[in-house]
Amino acid sequence: MDTHPLLEVADLRLAYRTSRGPVRAVDGVGFDLRRGEAMVVLGESGCGKSSLAKALLRLLPRNVEGLTGQVRLAGEDVLALPEERFRAEVRWVRIALVMQAAMNALNPVVRVGEQVAEPLRVHRGWSRARAMEQAARTFELVGVAGDFLQRYPFELSGGMRQRVVLAMALVTEPEVVILDEPTSALDVLTQAGIMNVLKRIKAELGTSFILITHDVATSSELADRVALMYAGQFVEVADAAEFFAHPAHPYARLLMGSVPRLHQAERPVHIPGQPPSLLAPPAGCRFAPRCPQRFGRCDQDPEVFTLAARHQVRCWLHADGEGP
Ligand SMILES: Nc1ncnc2c1ncn2[C@@H]1O[C@H](COP(=O)(O)OP(=O)(O)OP(=O)(O)O)[C@@H](O)[C@H]1O
């Protein structure tokens, strides 16, 4: 694996304008991702995961104000590119996104082969024949038989439609593929099939993945890295093995305790309380109101502490000499 970061995100922020004030959905997010690496972004519903994904592709609704920060792709700040260049060179070409519920958004009256070939025709200007050949190769890659190219979405199962959507994202051979809850609508066996496809693509093509999910269990197999998001911020980022074995943030520890395990009699732990509103997040640590380990200093906004190489945590418990 290349150890230079392919994607470096720093201090990414965005807010939605609403009649009740700005909703700060992404509030100072930073991370890096290497070539061939998969990062799982974990977090409860509403913490800003989809907003982060859309920000990376600059695919945001009109009521977004102040998208700021840096998104460096192989060293170039693509957030600063003019929209035309971003559209021609980055979006769907070098970074692709499989949106939440995309498999339900396939065009019902167009054969799936044509839909998978379309990004090549639009973004690369390829002929239909050449694009269809590449679509067929991509179908093979995601484990869909070639004769499915001629089918309509309604003729496919949910798992097959999800593979088609994945093929649509992969057909231009992007360096980074972001998947927003790619398996949440599927049954467990079908989910496992999709995760295996992702693993194979990662190994064969060296594609980097950002996988957004609230499902700790299915994501753990693919993840090299884990980012835990809470109320618009990353509260912990670490190598997956380290994160699962030694979660450092109290929220991560509670969450790990709340993952049902097959061979363990432990009952899932419910984390009492609600995430704060992103309209007016509390001053200081945003998790403090729900945190069993909170102490005096949590009234102040926590700094990000580095525990080991590539392991950061946003929590005062990790400031030297601090703690309850
Ligand atoms: N267009 C919008 N206008 C105003 N607020 C929005 C808009 N889109 C999202 N939000 C708000 O921004 C916050 C983050 O939403 P986002 O969809 O990014 O979260 P999420 O973690 O992906 O949640 P989910 O898993 O439920 O999709 C939420 O409070 C949501 O209500």
Automatic annotation (TrEMBL):
It holds the Pfam family ABC_tran. The keyword Iron-sulfur does not apply. GO terms for biological process: peptide transport; transmembrane transport. GO terms for molecular function: ATP binding; ATP hydrolysis activity. It comes from the Bacteria. Keywords: ATP-binding, Nucleotide-binding, Transport. Residues 7-256 form the ABC transporter domain. InterPro entries: AAA+_ATPase, ABC_transporter-like_ATP-bd, ABC_transporter-like_CS, Oligopep_ABC_C, P-loop_NTPase. The keyword Mitochondrion does not apply. This is Oligopeptide/dipeptide ABC transporter, ATP-binding protein. It comes from Thioflavicoccus mobilis 8321.
